[in-house]
Amino acid sequence: MSKLSPDHKFLDFSDYGRSMAKLIVSNLINTKVTPIQLTLAFGVSGLLAVYCIFKGYFILAGVFLILKSILDAADGELARQKNTPSYVGRYLDSIFDILLNLILLLLIGHLSQSPLWLTLLAFICVQMQGTLYNYYYVILRNISVDGDQTSKVFEQKTPKAFEGEKQSTVNTMFLIFQVLYSFFDRTIQILDNNAHRSKNYPNWFMSLVSIYGLGFQLLIIAIFLAFGKMTLIIPFFIGYTILLPFMILVRKALK
């Protein structure tokens, strides 16, 4: 089951782990392994990457970052294959992403002796980039498949729990999600407040925006680490944000 119809599929540079994720899922579909267990596994992979950076095992850290991206794709893939959508899983996935990004960049900033304010600015830039990609991608998913079940363009109220979930748990996860993401979501929505009214998201444009996806961001970090260029990571992601207003202007021109 695809998140996009054939007409809307595009070359997603952030989703390079999809083929491996599908292979993993094909071996788990008839087991008791749950999507949330895969979400926990990618959280562990992210923490192992952080540990390896701390210890100076930079190539191995890159491997764990890429593995995190693969498992990040696999949890949603397994949920779709088993037809077990989950708001708990959806919010846990996003919570892990933003916390791991913060821990990762704080460690990189510390080891590269970057000022704390510069490291936090890089974190904000990374989140703004990822939010722009997610904003357009979720709009496209809602256009493409008659409404995505767990990801909404505007997430402003607590959703009703799916069967098998506790509403109290969904409420708690949604609150945490809002605290962590509302600033970034609202900022991007203000910058392009009419994006949800457009149905024109050509494949080439989505491929362009996908370079801001988390998977591609982690791949960039892995490459910098592998080549011993950790000191460039913080300034790179700050400078990388220069493309954000350009992408928004292109989207608006498409109408």
From TrEMBL:
GO terms for cellular component: membrane. The lineage of its organism: Bacteria, Pseudomonadati, Bacteroidota, Cytophagia, Cytophagales. The keyword S-adenosyl-L-methionine does not apply. The keyword ATP-binding does not apply. GO terms for biological process: phospholipid biosynthetic process. Belongs to the CDP-alcohol phosphatidyltransferase class-I family. Keywords: Membrane, Transferase, Transmembrane, Transmembrane helix. InterPro entries: CDP-OH_P_trans, CDP-OH_PTrfase_TM_dom, CDP_ALCOHOL_P_TRANSF_CS. GO terms for molecular function: phosphotransferase activity, for other substituted phosphate groups. Pfam families: CDP-OH_P_transf. This is CDP-alcohol phosphatidyltransferase. It comes from Arcticibacterium luteifluviistationis. The chain crosses the membrane at residues 40-67, 88-110, 116-136, 204-226, 232-250.
